[in-house]
Amino acid sequence: MKKQYLLPLSAVAGGIVALFLRAAQNRTGFETETGLPIPGSLPGIALPVLLAALALLFFLLSRRLPSEGAPGPALPADFSTRDARLLALPVAGSFLIALSGTLDLLSGFGLLGGISAASADTLTTGFSPRSHLLMGLFSLAAAAGLFLSAAACRRQGRRENAPVLAGTWLLVPVAALVVRLVLTYRACSVNPSLEAYYVELLALVFLTLSFYRLSSFAFQAGQTRRFALYVCAAVVLCIAAVADTAKQPGSLLAYLGSGATLLGFLLLRLSAPPSFEKDVE
Fold first, then answer.
1. What whole-number distance in Å separates Cα of residue 73 and Cα of residue 268?
2. Domain locations in the chain?
3. Distance, CA of 177 to CA of 154 (rounded, Å)
4. For a Cys staple, 29 with which of 25, 90, 147, 204, CB 3.0–4.6 Å?
């Protein structure tokens, strides 16, 4: 196994540990009646320490990747592969995002659990039916863009218009995540305890940054080091956010799908296309 794959493997392993810590904090780190954090909660202290340690680890590992000049790697040319197995992760991630958008649309129209589901969902998740509709539409558009971009990475010879196609479509997930970030902050900000929702907000922030960095490759303005750093942080936070969104299937699938998609594109970049492989050797 090539040493570059230590980054994505570290992100997945760190995310699993963060998930267990976050789940433990949700069970024991908050008062039942008020929802306020309990001072001195061990999982609540350990989780930020773990996230800081992982951030340092990802920074050090990403610095070991070869530097790249301008113009940088191109998407899809320098992400392309003839191995269909490498495309499975970003394609599966795009389908999860599409499923998330579908569930949000159904929630927005009150079709999940009856007519009263819309008002009940607002109480449990903080999202209004209109917010669900907006997130659903953007998620479906983002999923389509990511699927087309992943499909463009299937190596079948270079096409001059492929980078333009990928770049245009990859701007859609960035917009979708900005919308979700704003709506999630509005829904969560009524909670006086930042500890209760900071993981989810950080996940959305790093997802937005990661997809923005991914789209920059389509214009040959991306850097693999920076992209890998943001993606690994996003993957850890997306896995940890599962503990906060277990009862919100739309949000849960959005985080898992986004994390899987980004991890898939990172693996495509690290799978040694000619220009990258030459630098490593």
1. 12
2. 3-26+73-280
3. 26
4. 25
